[in-house]
C-alpha cells in the first residue's frame, strides 16, 4: 500500500507527457505562424519595391526616347540595324 501512495505522489509531482506535448505543439504552432507572417510581410514589401523600380525604369526609358526624338532632325529617328 505504501508503494502505491509513493507512486501516486511521484506521478502528481512530475508533469504529464500530455502537458509536454501540448506545450511543444503550441510553441511550434506559434513559431510557424510567426514565420508565415514575417514571410508574407517581406513578400509584399519587396513586391511593392520591385513594382516601384519597374515603373521608374519605364519612366527613365520614356525620357530617353523623348530626348532622342527631340534631338533628331525633322523628328526622324534612325534605328540601329540588328
Protein architecture, described:
The protein is 82% helix and 0% strand. By secondary structure, the chain is mostly helical. The chain has one domain (14-72). It is rod-shaped.
Task: Please give a quick description of this structure.
The chain is mostly helical. It has one domain (14-72). The chain contains 2 helices and no strands.
Strand content: under 5%
Number of domains: 1
* Cα Rg: 34 Å
The total count of strands amounts to 0
Question: What's the overall average pLDDT, rounded?
Answer: 81
Q: What form results from the Cα inertia axes? A: rod-shaped
List unreliable stretches of 5+ residues.
none
Helical amount among residues, as a percent range? Answer: over 70%
Report how far the terminal alpha carbons are from each other.
99 Å
Based on secondary structure, the structural category is mainly alpha
Q: How would a crystallographer describe the biggest sheet? A: none
Q: Topology as H/E string?
A: HH
**Helix count?**
2
Question: Could you outline the blueprint of secondary structure elements for this entry?
Answer:
Layout: H1 2-13, H2 17-71
Could you name the key traits of this structure?
82 residues, mainly alpha, 2 helices, 82% helix
Amino acid at each position: 500500500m505504501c508503494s502505491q501512495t509513493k507512486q501516486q505522489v511521484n506521478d502528481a509531482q512530475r508533469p504529464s507527457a500530455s502537458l509536454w506535448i501540448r506545450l511543444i505543439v503550441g510553441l511550434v504552432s506559434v513559431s510557424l505562424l510567426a514565420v508565415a507572417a514575417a514571410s508574407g510581410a517581406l513578400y509584399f514589401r519587396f513586391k511593392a519595391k520591385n513594382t516601384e523600380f519597374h515603373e521608374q525604369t519605364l519612366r527613365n526609358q520614356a525620357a530617353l526616347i523623348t530626348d532622342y526624338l527631340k534631338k533628331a532632325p525633322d523628328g526622324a529617328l534612325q534605328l540601329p540595324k540588328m
